[in-house]
Structure formats: C-alpha cells, structure tokens
Amino acid sequence: MNLVIVGGVAAGATAAAHARRVNESAAITILERGPYISYANCGLPYFISGDIPERSDLLLQTPESFKRRFDVDVFVETEVVEIDRAGHRIRVRDRAGERWLPYDKLILAQGAQPIMPPLSGVDLPFVFKLWTVTDMDRLASFIDQSCPRHAVIVGGGYIGIEMAEALVKRGLETTIVEKLSRVMAIMDPEFSFLIARELRAQGVRILTGSGLRAISPDPRGVDLEDGRHLDADLVLVSVGVRPELDLARNAGLAIGASGGLAVDEYLATSDPDIFAAGDLIEVTELVSGKSVRIPLAGPANRQGRLAAGNALGQRRPYHGALGTSVVKIFEATAGMTGLSARSARDAGFDVGVATVHGEDHAGYYPGAQELTLSLIYDRRSGRLLGGQAFGRAGVDKRIDVLVTALHAGLKLDDLAELDLAYAPPYSEANDPINVAAFVGQNDIAAYSPLVDPASLGERLTHRDGAVVLDVRTDEEFARGHLQGAIHVNLDELRGHMADLPRSAPVYAYCRSGHRSHVAVRLLRQEGFDARNISGGAESLQAVAALPWVDE
C-alpha cells in the first residue's frame, strides 16, 4: 500500500502517524508545501505575546523525527501541482524541478489560507498575516527590529482578538477594525459586547461598521471605507480563511454547497481512492444537519485520524462537528458550542434563550468570579441546540459539558438533572448549567416565560399598553435603568399591582433574572401576562435593545 498525504500540519501529520499505527508495512509519504510540518499553529499568537517563550516549543515534529518514529518519508517545500486520477499519480514541484509520484490512496490535507483582500497596499512590508511559522517569524522579527508603536488589526474574529492581546503585551497601541457591527460576530450580541468590553478595558480601541479601503504607505496606516485614516506602523489582516481547493477542483473532485471539498461519512471524496481532512473539507454541523465549513484544529486532527484509517481499509464514520471554540481575552475567556441563537433561528428552530449571570463557584468561597452562560434550545422539543459562556474562570468547563450534552442529544430536562461535581471552590450546589436549564424549563412550561432582550423593543412597539417592570432596589434603579421602565422594588410589588396593566404584557427584569422570576410568578398567579426578560439588566445593557439611562 502506497499512501501519499498532501499537507503536513494538523490533519496531515495526524493522518500519517495514525496510518503507521494501522499498517506497519505501508509506504507513507507526506508532501508539505511549506518548510515545517506538525507545528502548533494555534500557539502562534502566544509566541508573539511572549507567553510561549521558546519558538522550538511550537515545532512538534521535524521531517527527521517523523522518519525516526513513524518511518514516514516527509518532503517539505514540495508542492503538489496536479492529480492524475486515472493514472493514480501526482505531479510534484520542488527545488529540483518536477516529477510524478504514484499513489494507491491519496489524502488531501492542505487546509486553508488566510484571505488577503485585493486592496492597495496589502503587499507593503509592514502588513502581515498570521497562519504559519514563517508568518510568525516575519512578524516577530519586525516587532523586534522596527519597534512599532501603533498597530491596526483588520478583523475581529479569533485571530484578531488573540493578536490584540499579544500586541498590547508587546507594548503597541492597538486598534481592531471590524467591518461588521460587532467583534466576534459568530457569537450572539451579548457575548460580542462582553468581549468588546474586556478588550476596551485593556486599552484596545475597537472600530466597527466600516471596512478597509486601502493600506497607505504615506502617511503609514489604513484608510477606511467611511473616509477615516488610522495611523499604523504595523497592520495585521485577519478577515477569514478560504479552503485550498485548486488541486481538488482541477482534478474534477466534487465541491460541496458550502464551498468546501465534498466528502462522504468516511471522508472519501468523489474519487474513492482520494480522501480528505481538515480545513478544506465540508462537514455536517451536528445540530442542524447542514453542510458547513468548520476550520478548527480539533476537528481537523480527528478527521485526519479517521481519514488515514479509512484509506487503509477501516470503516469508521465521521459524523460531523459542533464548531466548539474558546478564546482567551486577556484574563477573560469566551466559548461556544453548537448553534448561536441567530443560526438556530435560521435553521428553522423555535428558539429559546436562557441566560444566567452567576458565579463560577460558590459566592461565599473566596475568589468567585462572575460567569455569564446562555443555553439555546428548541421550545417545541426542549432539545439543547447550543451554548455560549463568558467569564474569568470556569468557562471551558461549562462549554465542555454542553458539548457532551449536544453529542448525546440531551434536552433541558436532562441538563436540569445533571449531577455535576460540587464543592464550594468549584461550583454552586446548582451549577450555572443546572440553573440555566431551570430557566429554560420554566420558559417552555409557561411557568415563567422568557422574552429575549434583543426582541424587547419590537415587542413593546407592537403591544399597545405593554410595560417594562424593574424590580431592583431603589439604589440599583438610581444607578441606571431601562428608559421608560416602571420601578417597583420586588419586596413592595404586592402593594403596587394596581399600577400595572392587566390587559397587556408586563416584561420584568432585575439584575440577572432571579428576582424578576419571583416577580413573574407572583404576577402570573394574580392574572397578569407577565414575562421574564432573559438575563436581566446585565443582558439588556449588552444587547442595547432599548436606551439605557445612567444616572
């Protein structure tokens, strides 16, 4: 068996190592266009920041070490330029020229490439991308030698946010420019708000709603579509990636509806002797069942393992991915899995969102930190659809629980009963996941129905006589409140019911949603059409559904 793997980073290197474990006698070859294989590309921003001090820590394998351990032939700086499917051979190009290599089975794992917009100035020497070790070396050398003071990051996604922290740690005044209305737009608005707030608190300037028009050499910086010019000694472009499909497309392999290389459940392409894994393929999103591209390292590694085994005769299906991700924002963390509320609505679900603002462990134990957690669920079935979290501790733990729940197809009723590990230093007796599930259960049962803060303005516009009820303390209300809200302290609510309409909805909120839940239960038992605003004042301020008055 002659197995050839095109691409030697995440999916490709994993595929080669697993292939050797499956078949000791196979001839296995990796062809990598760049100078390095099997490196930790997710760690590149942390070398720039200085959190990872040694460059060598990112280089997990070399061609020589891979040969010694796995008996795999690795050729770097070698590009595959053509696949001859009929002849079971590939044409490769390196410094010595071009030649043909035969294969029995082929695995495509070239990944993706960062998008560089076709704008004036993107090739200037102070403009960078960050995708490979070579990119990292060039950027690190520029910072060390040129001592830039002002940086502009174009794009507010994962790499943009990680690099904002890295550049601030290196002493640069840093601005993120995002063409969309908010950073980290893959998450729901509340979490974008929390991420942006943390970035700004650390000195990062954020400009949204205007894209890049050009990069200017003199005066050095960027010109925005809205006419503004931003001075910059360093520009990092991070506006997304596109799959490496030229080789596959030229070979006549099928491309999927989402724009990735189409594969079956065994990661075989439309040619049964060619498999594929990693950022270039299209996969099934496990909640919606839709075909999507998920360019993340975790799925790429797992796909590489399965593609290798299946190419060598195993039959292990790859069912898909959830797009689970986590990102560090200085001392905070944000994470998500499954569908956002927006993507769940787009997929046709009757979406409910239960948001809680709690603490990562028992409040009476020292060091408790606020944790915001949202569960996205289908109101019709109670099925969990996704989850998002933000905080300074415990975010990854909750997201990983939700990943497991999504894989198992759990519903809110199941999450409410999860017997999660509890001791005061680690959690509350009812973990935030349990509490969020309780909130969702109450919504579905109409025991304490929820209203999404983002839709509150529209609901008030179309519901004559509807009111917003603030049940916080006098001091809390005085510090800031939703414009037009009626204020009645929860403890005084029973004596003020005559001030509220019985013929229109009453939308109640407190700081986080617990006291307003108590108010909703009281009002509903007295005949009011009362609803709880999910997430309370914390969420209302984040999504800016209506004007917030600070006093």
Q: In words, what does this structure look like?
A:
This protein has 551 residues and is α/β, with parallel strands linked by helices. It has four domains: 2-112 and 242-311, FAD/NAD(P)-binding domain (3-Layer(bba) Sandwich); 127-239, FAD/NAD(P)-binding domain; 331-444, FAD/NAD(P)-binding domain, CATH 3.50.50.60; 450-550, Oxidized Rhodanese, domain 1. Strands 3-2-1-7-18 form a five-stranded parallel beta sheet. It is globular, with a radius of gyration of 26 Å. It starts with a strand and ends with a strand.
Separation of termini? 74 Å
The number of domains is 4
- Roughly what percent helix? 25-40%
The neighbouring-strand order within the major sheet is 3-2-1-7-18
What is Rg?
A: 26 Å
Low-confidence stretches: none
Most strands sheet: 5 strands, parallel
Q: Identify the quaternary structure here.
A: single chain
**CATH architecture annotation name of the largest domain:** 3-Layer(bba) Sandwich
Global outline: globular
Q: What fold name goes in the CATH topology slot of the largest domain?
A: FAD/NAD(P)-binding domain
| CATH class wording of the largest domain | Alpha Beta
Portion in beta strands: 25-35%
CATH superfamily of the largest domain: FAD/NAD(P)-binding domain
Mean pLDDT, as a whole number? 96
Which structural class fits the helix and strand makeup? alpha/beta
Number of E strands = 32
Number of helices: 16
